[in-house]
Amino acid sequence: MEIMASVVLLRFGFSDIDSWKRVRAAMVNELQENQVFWKDLLGSYFDQVKGAVQFFEGKDVGSDKWMTLPDMGLLIATKFNVVLVNVSYDCCMIFLPLHNALPPMKDRVVIDVTNVNDTHTG
């Protein structure tokens, strides 16, 4: 299981071994339901993002199927209505949902992915 799917899974309490597939399926669903929006936003990059999240095999994942930041940041924030924060030595990024207003502060979900020594923590 990869880091981005793992972070989303842990935050929302998914625990079974194939839960990462539900995260990816939800993201594919978001891209399909709002295809015009995402194509306008991502342009020619849309097919690459969609191709990356359409991977459902439980085997080794090639780098073209990784859910990396910043590539997946807006999609994750939008689909799961969360604030996604990425902190690394090179830069810091905050991704906010694009379709919905954020929930009140007491209900808000913030997911932090920090890159330390070329590894990820969430």
What does it look like?
The protein has five helices and four strands, in the order αααααββββ. The chain has 122 residues and is an alpha+beta fold. The chain is globular and about 35 Å long. A four-stranded mixed β-sheet has the order 2-1-3-4. It has one domain: Cathepsin B, Chain A (Alpha-Beta Complex).
Write the layout of secondary structure elements.
Elements: H1 3-11, H2 19-33, H3 35-42, H4 46-53, H5 73-80, E1 83-87, E2 92-95, E3 110-116, E4 119-121
Q: Enumerate how many helices there are, as a single number.
A: 5
CATH topology: Cathepsin B, Chain A
- Mean of pLDDT: 80
Query: H/E order of the elements?
Result: HHHHHEEEE
Shape-level CATH architecture: Alpha-Beta Complex
Largest sheet: 4 strands, mixed
Specify the CATH class.
Answer: Alpha Beta
User: In which range does the helix fraction lie?
Assistant: 25-40%
Distance between the termini: 14 Å
Q: Strand sequence of the main sheet, in spatial order? A: 2-1-3-4
Question: Rg, please?
Answer: 14 Å
- The backbone outline, from C-alpha atoms, is globular
Q: Spans of 5+ residues with little confidence (pLDDT < 50)?
A: none
Number of strands: 4
